[in-house]
């Protein structure tokens, strides 16, 4: 099969999965097998695209000319492949986790859930491989619309309210700012195609470019830069597999990926470094990192604490992109990978705790490590990954982000990153440490065995396997980050 056909297959496999899931809705084991096989097939196809890309092959697909100069087209480039690799692999793991969670928690409308999940992955592939801003925008909006029913999955008043906040902010920012930025880019540059080094001519007004950059940063609401971040904690009413989709597999990663791609392939290093708005947006990203960390520290609901942690960590990726240095871009792209594995593990653990122990508050988790040792060990590993210390891959992304602030002479931001890391220690590490080392209380101890010891009661096996895989991935990425590093270097 040709490389261009492989690229098209990567775009079509999730849609074919939707058909298979709908046809097998009456047989849940078959339906879930279709999801797992489709996810595995997608990952295999995306992996096959890795060698020809590094070999320098041009792999592109043209679907449709909407009007002169405006096409629905796709092209393989390094950062897009990195995003696609992460999303396709985590589709496998999240599907495995969802099988255990959805059954263990007795969730309704499971066929709809798996179908919309597949549509979301199709949208992610479209975003990852988009050749131009028009194609990217189309799939960006599809991702918003197909994840809305997942956010409101429970059907309660609280879920519907969370869905309204989710939809209003994401559609409002994309139509009010992002679309306007795309139109202005077309008028200024005469093209929407991504190009290494950027697409604007050297004589383009710095003031206009500053306005344009502000529109892009605020327009990509999925990146959750303050003050357009409220949709993320509001969406925590969704089932935990959806939270994993939002935080690690698709939605927020699509947001920061878009910003990274815009900074690198629409503006370029030299343009970003020369326009006034970059400096102020850097400080805005820094403020988002710090403020979200402080808010996370104050949250007692576990999923809300993790949600505000995500807002903070997304700020790291945005900051790295805006630094417009080689180390900053490297750290930003690596953090997409490292945060994906760390945060998905944390949400998997939160869901496992809900299913097995029926607990949602941080204060209820004391002593829980005796009842759920595998889950809380995974939580500890993932926390270290988010913090950015060994033995986890988060070490590399935080290291390169620090180097990026050094290269850009942004000492204030360097200190801010250090303070934020200390805050992440404060809001994450006490949870697993107290789970293992606090004395058992009647509420935390769980069910007692006949000899008086605490009986182990973990989540269903598929969920446990999934969180074990992603926790192991956090450690694996410390030892073997080279495959992603090579992609990033090829894209800079």
UniProtKB/TrEMBL annotation:
Cellular compartments annotated: Cell membrane; Membrane
Lipid bilayer topology: Multi-pass membrane protein
Residue ranges annotated for the NADH:quinone oxidoreductase/Mrp antiporter transmembrane domain, each copy included: 130-424
Family matches, as Pfam families: Proton_antipo_M, Proton_antipo_N
One term under GO cellular component: plasma membrane
Membrane-crossing segments per the record: 6-24, 36-61, 81-101, 113-130, 136-153, 165-187, 207-225, 245-268, 280-297, 306-330, 336-356, 368-390, 410-429, 464-488
Domain NADH-Ubiquinone oxidoreductase (complex I) chain 5 N-terminal residue range list: 70-114
Keywords: Cell membrane, Membrane, Transmembrane, Transmembrane helix
Predominant location: membrane
UniProt family annotation: Belongs to the CPA3 antiporters (TC 2.A.63) subunit D family.
Listed name of the protein: Monovalent cation/H+ antiporter subunit D family protein
């Amino acid at each position: 099969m040709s490389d261009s056909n492989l690229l098209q297959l990567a775009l079509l496999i999730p849609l074919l999965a939707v058909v298979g899931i709908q046809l097998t809705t009456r047989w849940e084991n078959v339906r879930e097998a279709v999801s797992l096989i489709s996810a595995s097939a997608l990952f295999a196809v995306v992996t096959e695209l890795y060698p020809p890309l590094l070999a320098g092959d041009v792999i592109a697909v043209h679907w449709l000319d909407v009007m002169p100069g405006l096409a629905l087209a796709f092209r393989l480039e390094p950062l897009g492949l990195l995003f696609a690799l992460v999303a396709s692999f985590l589709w496998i793991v999240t599907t495995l986790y969802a099988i255990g969670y959805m059954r263990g928690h007795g969730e309704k409308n499971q066929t709809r859930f798996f179908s919309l999940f597949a549509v979301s992955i199709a949208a992610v592939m479209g975003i990852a491989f988009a050749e131009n801003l028009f194609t990217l925008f189309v799939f960006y909006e599809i991702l918003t619309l197909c994840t809305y029913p997942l956010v409101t999955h429970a059907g309660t008043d609280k879920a519907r309210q969370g869905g309204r906040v989710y939809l209003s902010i994401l559609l409002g920012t994309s139509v009010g700012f992002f679309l306007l930025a795309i139109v202005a880019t077309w008028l200024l540059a005469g093209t929407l195609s991504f190009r290494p080094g950027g697409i604007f001519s050297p004589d383009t007004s710095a003031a206009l470019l500053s306005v344009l950059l502000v529109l892009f940063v605020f327009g990509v609401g999925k990146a959750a830069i303050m003050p357009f971040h409220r949709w993320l904690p509001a969406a925590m009413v969704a089932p935990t597999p959806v939270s994993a989709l939002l935080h690690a597999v698709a939605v927020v990663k699509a947001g920061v990926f878009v910003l990274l791609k815009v900074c690198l392939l629409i503006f370029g290093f030299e343009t970003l470094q020369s326009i006034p708005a970059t400096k102020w947006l850097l400080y805005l990203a820094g403020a988002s990192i710090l403020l979200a960390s402080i808010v996370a520290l104050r949250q007692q609901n576990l999923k809300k604490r993790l949600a505000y942690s995500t807002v903070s960590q997304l700020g790291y990726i945005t900051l790295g992109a805006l630094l417009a240095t080689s180390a900053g871009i490297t750290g930003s792209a690596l953090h997409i990978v490292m945060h994906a594995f760390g945060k998905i593990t944390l949400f998997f653990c939160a869901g496992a705790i809900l299913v097995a122990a029926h607990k949602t508050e941080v204060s209820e988790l004391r002593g829980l490590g005796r009842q759920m040792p595998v889950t809380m060990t995974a939580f500890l590993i993932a926390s270290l990954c988010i913090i950015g210390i060994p033995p986890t891959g988060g070490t590399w992304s935080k290291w390169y982000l620090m180097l990026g602030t050094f290269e850009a002479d942004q000492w204030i931001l360097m200190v801010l990153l250090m303070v934020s890391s200390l805050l992440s220690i404060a809001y994450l590490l006490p949870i697993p440490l107290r789970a293992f080392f606090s004395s058992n209380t009647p509420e935390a101890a769980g069910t007692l065995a006949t000899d008086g010891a605490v009986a182990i009661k973990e989540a269903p096996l598929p969920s446990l396997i999934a969180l074990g895989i992603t926790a192991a991935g956090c450690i694996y990425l410390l030892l073997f980050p080279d495959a992603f590093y090579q992609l990033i270097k090829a894209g800079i």
